[in-house]
Specification:
Structural class: alpha+beta
CATH class of the largest domain: Alpha Beta
Distance between the termini: 66 Å
Strand order of the largest sheet: 2-4-3-1-5-6-7
Radius of gyration: 24 Å
Number of domains: 2
Number of helices: 13
CATH superfamily of the largest domain: DNA integrity scanning protein, DisA, N-terminal domain
Shape: elongated
Length: 272
């Protein structure tokens, strides 16, 4: 019963502690990645199956144990098929814990100051008019898959262009604008919707699409609600909702602007 106490000195060796720590971190990260998704319920179901299987084997319920073993074997094949989006999210997030951040903050070419000024101008103008806006900015992870779903433009970023794209009842209004390397790559793009159940039902499709894209990539997405005019930003699967001008500027600059460019525009968007 107390054999583990005798083995405690061996367990507490540095290499074993490192081994345990790595496993604990990986399990924790997986739990956090799957939290709020369909896969979370699946994991709970698998845990229940394993517990019941162990109990049935210990008690001697041969038929029940055999059925549970067959279910476990079928799950090995079914899980990758049924939960491909969740698995993709997990693997993508693991790949994004980013070597790139060691060398540079973002993969943005050109003038980041112009980009932030254009986004701020567009958000403020459309917020006042309660016009829906959805703009994704590519960073290190490619958004080509989503660019190909829209109408390609390859135009310079400007507030005037972005405002014209989002004029209500125009062909490019619905869908997302994607900005790549400081150029408007495409408009009317389709973005993946999040499966998270923790999002408020008051938030619409634009917000769910913004969160969905940032769950799968390192993109930064800005949103204006056409119902309330609230300005929001999504990053790393998290939504920062109903922001002031100052808060929006702060989050955009932290995500997109190098320190030198921040000094140029720091004062301009502090009001509000």
């Amino acid at each position: 019963m107390y054999e583990w106490l005798l083995n405690l000195p061996e367990i507490l060796q540095p290499i074993n502690l490192l081994d345990i720590t790595i496993i604990a971190v990986v399990v924790y990260k997986l739990i956090m990645m799957l939290k709020g998704t369909r896969a979370e319920q699946l994991v709970k179901g698998i845990v229940v199956l394993l517990v019941v299987s162990i109990i049935s084997e210990y008690v001697g319920l041969i038929a029940v144990n055999w059925i549970l073993i067959q279910l476990q074997q079928m799950l090995v094949i079914a899980i990758p098929i049924l939960f491909a989006p969740e698995l993709r999210k997990v693997l993508t997030n693991l790949g994004q814990k980013r070597l790139g951040n060691i060398f540079s903050r973002d993969n943005l070419n050109g003038n980041a100051t112009v980009l932030v000024e254009s986004l701020m101008g567009t958000m403020i103008a459309n917020s006042a008019e309660k016009t829906g806006v959805l703009i994704a900015v590519q960073r290190q992870d490619s958004l080509l898959e989503y660019i190909n779903t829209g109408i390609k433009l390859d135009s310079e970023v400007s507030t005037a262009l972005l405002n014209n794209i989002f004029v209500v009842n125009t062909p490019l209004h619905d869908g997302a604008v994607i900005i790549k390397e400081n150029r408007v790559a495409a408009a009317a793009c389709y973005l993946p919707l999040t499966d998270s159940r923790t999002i408020s039902k008051a938030l619409g499709t634009r917000h769910r699409a913004a969160i969905g894209l940032t769950e799968q990539t390192d993109a930064v997405v800005v949103i204006v609600s056409e119902e309330t005019g609230a300005m929001s930003i999504a990053q790393n699967g998290k939504l920062f909702h109903d922001l002031s001008r100052k808060d929006l500027y702060t989050l955009l600059s932290e995500a997109l602007v190098v320190d030198e460019a921040k000094k140029t525009i720091l004062g301009k968007w502090r009001m509000g």
